[in-house]
Amino acid sequence: MLEVRGVSAGYGGFRALSDVSLEVRAGEAVAVIGPNGAGKTTLLRVISKLIPASAGEIVMTGVKLADVPPEKVVELGIAHVPENRRLFPRLTVEENLRMGAFVPAARARFRERLEFVYALFPRLRERRDQLAGTMSGGEQQMCAIGRALMSGPRLLLMDEPSAGLAPVIVQQVFELVRRIRAEGYTVLIVEQNVQQVLRVVDRAYLLEVGGIRLAGSAAELLASDAIRRSYLGL
Amino acid sequence: MFDIFLIEAVINGVLLGGVLALLALGLNLVFGVIDVVWICYAELVMIGMYAIWWLFVHYGVPLPVAIGAAVALVALAGVALHVLVIQPVLGTPPINQLLVTGGVLFFLQAAATLAFGIEFRNLGLRMPIVEVGEMFFSFARILAFATALAGVAALWLFLTRTYLGTAIRAISQDREIMPLMGVNPRRIYLVTSAIGGGMAGIAAALLALQYDVHPAIGLSFGPITFMICVLGGLGNMAGGFVAAFVFAQFISVGGFYAQVEWGYVIAFAFFIVMMFVRPQGLFSR
Fold it and tell me: What is the residue range of A150's domain?
C-alpha cells in the first residue's frame, strides 16, 4: 500500500533521515521504533509532505507523492495523527472532527463517520461541545485519532500516541490502537514505548540516527538481543 | 432625572456602535487569522466609498448595483493587498508589516487625491429623519445599524457553521498542520482577505449614505477602528463587538454633554488610560 524507497530528508543543513526504505502492506500494522531524535517523526512528516524529501520516492497505492501537493495527500487515503496530538484547542471536539472531514469526499459522509467515531469513542460524544484544549491527555488522543478517521483513510499514521501521558493512560492509548486495528485500518505507528508497541503491531523497523538498522516481525524484534539490551532494559 | 435628549444620544450611540462594530470586524478577522494588522483598512473603506460615488453620481448606475459592485471591488482589493503586499512580508518582524501597510495607507490617500482631487464628494441623497416620540433619528443611521448587525450575524454563522469558516478559525490556532486536514493555508488566507475586504466594502456603503468622501476620510475612521480592535483584544471578534458599542457611547453621550469633538477627546483619553490598565484589551482570553 505504502512504499518508501531510499528517502532522505532534513532541516536546513541537518540530515534527519538518510536512505530510508520501508513498506506497509494493506491490513498490516507496522511500527517504527527507535530513540529520541532518530528521525521517526521526520519520517511521518515526509510521508505527509509536511516537509519535503531531498531524495528517494514515496508511493501510495501506485501514486507518487512527489506529484501531489501537501494538502492532497489526505485524499490519497493517508491520515496523520501528529506528535502531541495538535488538536485545535479553542475549537470544540465536534469542530475538530469536522476539520478532519474537510475534503469534499469526506464532507459527503460526515454524519455517518461522526456516528462511527462516536461509537468507537463514546467519551467524545459526551464531550462533543467541549473545547478540545480543556480535555485530558487521553481524551485529546481519542479526539486526534477520531479527527484522522473522519477523512476515511486507508492508512493511519500515528506519531508517538503515548507520549506525555500518565502510565495508566498509556495503557488505554494502546488499547485504542488495538481497537483501530480491529476495525481493519492499516497503521504505521512511530513509538518510543517499544515494549508496548511491539505487542500491537505485526512488523517493526528499528530507526537509529536517521537509518533503518533492523527490520522484522514484532516477535522477532522482541526476541532480538539488540532490542532487548537497548530498548527493553533486559 | 429624565432627559429625553440624553436618551436620544444613547440611542444614537447604539446606532453608531453597529457601524463601528462592522468596521472593527473586518480588521479583527484579518488580524486574528493572518496575524497582520491592515493599517490601511480605512483606506479600503475609502476605495469603496469612491466606487459608489463614481458609479452612482457619474454613471447613473442604480444605487444597489453600485453598492454591490463596490463591495465586490473592495473584496478584490483585500485579496490584492494580501497577494501583493502581505505575502512578501509574512514571517518578517511585525514592525515591517505595520510599516508596509502604513505605506499602502499613504499610497492610497495620494492615489485618491490624484484621481478624484481633494473635494468632498457626496451622493446627494436626501435621507429621511425618523421621529419617535420627541426624539429624532437619521434613517441612514438606522439602516446602517441594521445592516451592520446583519453583517456581523452572517459572518458569525459562516465562521461557526461551515467547513471553510471552521478552517478560518482553526488556522489561527495551528497553521502548520492544516495540510493534514486537506486545507491549503494560502487559500484560506485569500478567502479571509476577501471577507475582510468585503466587510470594509459593506462599511463603505453604510458610511457613504451619511458622510462625504474625500481622500483623507480614512483618517476619520481608521484610528477609531484600530482602537476598538485593540480595546476588545486584537483578533478577539466578540471583544471588538462590545468595545465598538462602548466607544460609540463615549462619542455620542460625551458629545451630548459638551460638543461632538469632546466625545472623541474623551474616547481617545479612555483608550490611553485602558492601555495602562489592561494593555491586553478589555476582553482578552
Answer: 25-38+73-202+209-230
Distance between CA atoms of residues B48 and B66, nearest Å: 10
Give tens-digit pLDDT for A52-103.
Answer: 999 999 999 999 999 999 999 999 999 999 999 999 999 999 999 999 999 9
The verdict on B179 touching A (C-beta cutoff 8 Å) is yes
Segment (H or E) for A100: helix A93-100
CA count, 13 A, side-chain hemisphere, B203: 33
For residue B18, give the nearest of B203, B210, B237 by alpha carbon.
B203
Show Cβ contacts of residue B76 under 8 Å, excluding neighbours closer than 6 positions: B194, B197
Tally of structural domains, chain A: 1
Residue with cell 514571517: B91
A14 bridge partner residues:
A11
Task: Give whole-number Cα distances, B160 to A90, A96, A222, B168, in Å.
Answer: 12, 12, 49, 10
Contact of B177 with chain A, judged by CB distance below 8 Å, is answered with yes
User: Which residue segment(s) compose the domain that B109 sits in?
Assistant: 4-114+138-277
CATH assignment of the domain containing A100: 3.40.50.300
Residues of B in contact with A106 (CB under 8 A): 182
CB of B218 within 8 A of CB of B105? yes
Which residue has cell 485519532?
Answer: A145
Q: B163 to chain A: which residues are within 8 Å by CB?
A: 98, 101-102, 107
- Supply the CATH number for residue B145's domain: 1.10.3470
User: pLDDT tens string for chain B (285 positions)?
Assistant: 567 888 888 888 898 898 899 999 999 999 999 999 999 999 999 999 999 999 999 899 999 999 999 999 999 999 999 999 999 998 899 899 899 999 999 999 999 999 998 889 888 887 888 888 888 888 888 988 899 899 989 999 999 999 999 999 999 999 999 999 999 999 999 999 999 999 999 999 999 988 899 999 998 889 999 999 988 888 888 889 999 999 898 888 887 877 777 878 888 888 888 888 888 777 765
Contact at CB, B166 and A75, closer than 8 angstroms:
no
Cell of A15: 540530515
Helix (H) or strand (E) holding B135: strand B135-138
B182 and A CB contact within 8 Å: yes
Grid cell listed for B117: 482631487
With respect to residue B285, please indicate whether it lies within any of the assigned structural domains.
no
Nearest residue in chain A measured CA to CA from B175:
A88
CB pairs under 8 A between A and B: 60
Chain B contact present for A70, CB below 8 A: yes
Residue A130, domain member (yes or no): yes
Domain count, chain B: 1
**Across the interface, which of A80, A88, A106 has its CB nearest the CB of B170?**
A88
**Cross-strand partners of A57:** A5
